[in-house]
Amino acid sequence: MFLNGIVPIYKKSGVVSFDIVRKIRYMLSEKYKKKIKVGHIGTLDPLASGVLVICIGHATRLSEYYLAMPKKYLGSMLLGFSTDTDDITGKVLTCAKPYLLTPFQLEKAFKELEGKIMQQPPIFSAIKVKGVPLYKSARKGKKVLVPKRQVYIYKATVFNYIPYPVPQINFELSCSKGTYIRSFCRDIGLKLSLPACMSSLVRVKSCGFSLKECVTLKDFTLLLQEDKLTKILVPLGERLPLATFIVKDAALKYLLDGKAITLTKEKSYLNGENVKVFTESGRFCGIYKYLEDKCVLLPSKVFREI
Question: Which of 19, 45, 86, 249 is catalytic?
């Protein structure tokens, strides 16, 4: 038996995201006596907990489409000091005496970071500069210019402010891929003229999966041992944020040969967009791009073996 699909895993705080990938890959390879591709769709910092979406087998080819979906977080930041990692696990760099913040000041700072912004990732991150991960350069004490990246903050909301003994802001954030919440906390501090760092983070939604849909690594292991992984495995193509096209079963071989699909009716609202294609019996065929001028679907990614 070979598995292809998505599984949302609950990652505990203190666990490295790739360690979960490594463990699942090892268990699957041992179980089925063959090398199986496993990856995650959007890493979580070790300090963070929450939704870590795991892709198995051919589902790894679909990660870019899931990544296009917003992520949602619940987090906390502390005011009055900053660190080299931009969270509480790092070395303290600066300190300042906090002042009492008003609701207006907090709302203004958060609103200013909504929308399309240029964000500078933390120096302790996996982003590569000249082929070297930033965290490796940081550990060696090397000074590296960290390039800013464009991200999108859909909504940033303060839901609690605790001024004493250490000022803390609890917040909710919806954002695009590539957004660093540690950087967001640092930048909120800059808006308030106070050093700040992230103190906790929970990813409550990612790739369309919520916390309540997650399973623990322990549950995953038990289901694998009992040959019941299909109970939690989301099949290829499902939950993808793309329009769906259904074709006749007789067209399957034609589709799997990577040929274009000619349509009989224009769908101008999909012009230039990717769509997912299934047969009438539910077999996922792949990702296609619709071209209005030719009224055809051109193959982007075809899934011959699933």
Answer: 45
